[in-house]
Amino acid sequence: MKKIVLALCLFLVLTPLLADERQPLLIPGKTALYQRVLSVPEARLADQPGDAQGVEVTPFSAFYVYERRQQNGREWLLLGTDRHGSLSGWMAARDSIAWNQGLTVEFKDPAGHDRVLMYKDEAALKALAKSGADADYDQLYRQAVQGQLPEDSPVIAIQPAGHIDIRKDFYLVPILDFQDTWLGSEQARMLKIASVPLENPEPQPAAAADDEYTAGLVFVIDASLSMDEYIERTREAVMKIYDQLGDAGQLGKVNFGLVAFRDNARAVPGLDYTAKTWVTLEEGRNPGAFLEKVGQLSAARVSSRDFREDAYAGLQQAISGMNWQGHDARYIVLITDAGAREGNDPLSTTGLSTEDVRQLAQDNGIAIFVLHLKTPATMADHQAAEAQYQELSDFPGIGSLYYGVLTGDVAEFGTVLDSLAGQISAQVAQGVNRPEPDSPVVKNNPRLAELQGKVEKLGYALRMQYLRQHKGGRLPRVFDAWMLDHDIREPARQVVNVRVLLTRDQLSDLHDVLQQVLRTAEEGLLSPQTFLDELKSLAATISRNPEELGRTTATTAGEGNSLVDMGFIGDYIEGLPYTGEVMSLSLDDWQSWPVRRQVDFLRRLEDKIAYYRALHDNTDLWISLDKGPVSGDSVFPLPLDMLP
């Protein structure tokens, strides 16, 4: 029987041996994509090529390649932890895995579908894709789940039963190759992942006590005109929870924060602020501090410009401006009677779309609930706002965490808020009263019962994730295998996400280039030929001075029929298993589009640019592979569908 396990990436902090102005080797044919490798078990770093001694390296440490040299018939690599000349030593090439494009697998939560099987070779996986989920597959799957794979099995591993969130606990399953294939009528990909069997797994981490599990719950509340009664009812709900936590001796297990938002204060100065943090999660540990500060909050005394508010400014403040460290479960409750200004709204202060905000929250491991007050005054916007907030609050594997309060009824709002806050607190803190799911109030309100069911599932998922992290739950380690990115039983279901590790500098370059393309396109909307001429001129400028707008291949600057051909898209994106809307745009198509379609395209581009800006500025999300401070070489596992 084989013990196969999926590897978390542990990175070794190495003291640089040398520091000079040298640059890593470029991948042939590229101008800004450097050669990189990952170390395998028992790899060592030596002072000189050919030296058998050296410092052992943690498996899957990532390095840049600065030099390749032959020594006694064997190739050696001079490696560094960054691209600025911080050299670490020499490693035998056979002890490394080439990993140039920075692609990695993120396994989705396996709840509700088969865990991913990993095959020894490409041929076995192709046979599976062709035959589908037959009796042979069923037998292999059972053997893998039971840990009883025979020696001659084509399957060498299975995805772990639990889910580990790559945004909270960064791990690497490097992708070395990929091929398109078909599962019935659905297109899928076969992925070759790096693998190394570890015979002696490291000791298990010490078990953590359940009472260390904590939650942060931040209310993001609309503080525009006529919201006073909802602000007061929120204060009352939190006061009830504090009392229950205090009675149970569980104060500090659930900490509350509060952010208030209005509309663009630059457009209506009488609003005083667009978004403001009234209570931080640290301050919210103390009931007295929370209630005192919330007591100072009141609704605006002047009207906004229209029926929409800048809700996403409040959410961005709560997501990126709040210190969430130390909180294992993270929740935001958005309370508003108005739709949110999308990023393309002239009065939006964030430039973020609904998709951008949802992605930013998920990047930070935060679930967003929305309590939408459907007051008569905003009736004309109810349908559009509901669709917007359903999308915003969609949590992977759970569904939409949205509740619409009909007529904005304060009593119903209070009941739902008490239930939501109480249920979250009860899941975290021992001894806190849990709202009864079969109470008369809930029985007579099927929408509240449905929301409670989702809160229950969400709380369970977050707690299981915590227990796996802190009670010895460990990922199996798997190396050198082939896998499918879609479910063999349900081919339309994607079971893994492919992410690309972009550095902070690369994301900044991408933002700047696309910003320039956007400006050029906006200026040329009324004159397509002017736009094309300006675009070619801009491409030529990048070719002459790539540092000005971010390095690209620019091999055909001023030529070609797409942004990629003209050299706008960095070579760290070219060749990925993804073709985005911007990357694949034909300039002939652009010329044939009506102005309205061009404007819609530019709005979507603007949304991506705003997301890149927000992600770049959120330093808590960036991972330094050398364990140093966040820098331009720090990385983030960006979902492929967030590329341009």
Provide tags for this entry.
644 residues, alpha+beta, SH3 type barrels, 6-stranded antiparallel β-sheet, globular, disordered N terminus, EC 2.7.11.1, VWF_A, transferase, Serine/threonine-protein kinase PpkA
CATH homology superfamily of the largest domain: von Willebrand factor, type A domain
Main β sheet profile: 6 strands, antiparallel
The helix count comes to: 14
User: Regions with pLDDT < 50 over 5+ consecutive residues?
Assistant: 1-20, 196-210, 472-478, 542-558
Report the count of strand segments: 24
Shape: globular
The CATH topology of the largest domain corresponds to: Rossmann fold
**What is the helix content?**
25-40%
Structural class, from secondary structure content? alpha+beta
Quote the average pLDDT. 79
What oligomeric state do the depicted chains represent?
single chain
With strands numbered from the N-terminus, the spatial order across the biggest sheet is 1-7-6-5-2-8
The span between the termini is 45 Å
Write up what this structure looks like:
Strand 6 (74-80) and strand 7 (86-92) form a beta hairpin. Helix 3 packs antiparallel against helix 4, helix 6 (354-363) runs parallel beside helix 7 (382-392) and helix 8 packs parallel to helix 10 (446-470). The protein has four domains: 18-98, SH3 type barrels (Roll), CATH 2.30.30; 103-204 and 474-494, no CATH class; 210-470, von Willebrand factor, type A domain (Rossmann fold, 3-Layer(aba) Sandwich); 503-642. The protein contains 14 helices and 24 strands. Helices cover 30% and strands 21% of the residues. Pfam families: VWA (PF00092). This is Serine/threonine-protein kinase PpkA. Residues 1-19 form the signal peptide.
